[in-house]
Amino acid sequence: MPSILEAITNRSSKRAYLPKPVPKEIQEKILNAAAMTPSGANMQPWVVYAISDKDVLQNIGDAIIEKMNSGVEHDQFIQYYPLKWKNPYKKRRIETGVGLYTLMEVDRKDVEKRRQMWHDNFRWFGASTVFFVFTDKDLIDNAQGALIDCGAYMQSLMLSAKEFGLDTCPQGSTTEYGKVVADVLNIPENLALLYSVVIGYADENAKINSYQPSRVPLEDNIIFI
Ligand SMILES: Cc1cc2nc3c(=O)[nH]c(=O)nc-3n(C[C@H](O)[C@H](O)[C@H](O)COP(=O)(O)O)c2cc1C
Fold first, then answer.
1. According to the model, what pLDDT value does residue 2 have?
2. pLDDT for res 1
3. 7 lies in a domain?
4. Low-confidence stretches of the chain (pLDDT beneath 50)
């Protein structure tokens, strides 16, 4: 069993999975653990659709890819990435992207291959379970606290998964098409998709899963006083 520090430091986003399903009992254990995530006033503002139905996942992916192919860049409830990238975030984003494409030997100009790799998000990297995390629109329209709570919830899901030998990939790519996901699932009107987390048994032989981008040294973003 990994220690807490091991689980945190060894977790990394995995982008290739075996088709092996994640048993519902294990999903429930992970969701029960993540339910203990603290939230302001104990609001527990997350609502999760834990989807393992192949057809439903296929339909969501198809609908997103169709939307993308029609030229729609996003159809979302929240804007996750900055509209204008500035440093140091721009530099970190570029370094992380370049690192991944270099490892996978994808040329910077190979737009088609890059697009295909992005589409892999909507094929759930071959995994058979995806958690789609929604919150109540009323909690994010004039306030932002629920976003903090649901962010902490994301990390709880990902770390709990490690306990069962499972890996994950958080997805802001679905955030960008949150309304498409909502349409396919026919979710209640009050909910907004924040993100999804792909969960499954990582393919240890897949080169892409060896990617582990580094972090900046503490002096870059920690101020001790
Ligand atoms: C909110 C959020 C959204 C993300 N969206 C995606 C995504 O759509 N597709 C993807 O492949 N990775 C996505 N990632 C993974 C990040 O690229 C990754 O966490 C970061 O590069 C650090 O790498 P690591 O998770 O392997 O440590 C996302 C991560 C977070 C926290």
1. 79
2. 75
3. no
4. none
220, part of any domain? no
CB 160 within 8 A of CB 34: yes
Q: Is 13 in the pocket of ligand 1 (CB under 6 A)?
A: yes
What range does the domain containing 127 cover? 15-204
pLDDT score for 68: 96
* Number of folded domains that form the chain: 1
Contact 156, 33 (CB under 8 A): yes
Residue 174 sits in a domain of what CATH number? 3.40.109.10
Taking the C-alpha atoms of residue 163 and residue 21, their distance in angstroms, rounded to an integer, is 16
- List CB contacts of 118: < 8 A, sequence separation 6 or more: 173
How confident is the model over 18-72, as pLDDT tens digits?
999 999 999 999 999 999 999 999 999 999 999 999 999 999 999 999 999 999 9
Q: Where are the alpha helices (DSSP H) in 80-170?
A: 89-103, 111-119, 137-141, 145-163
In DSSP notation, 173-208 reads TTGGGHHHHHHHHT--TTEEEEEEEEEE-B-TT-GG
Q: Is 165 in the pocket of ligand 1 (CB under 6 A)?
A: no
Give me the phi and psi of 35, to 5 degrees please: -65, -20
CA of 169 to the centre of ligand 1 (A): 6
Is residue 131 one of the residues assigned to a domain?
yes
Q: Specify the ligand 1 atom closest to the Cα of 174.
A: 8
122: DSSP letter: G
Residue 84: helix, strand or coil by DSSP?
A: coil
Ligand 1 pocket, residue 12 CB under 6 Å: yes
Residue 221 falls within a domain, yes or no?
no
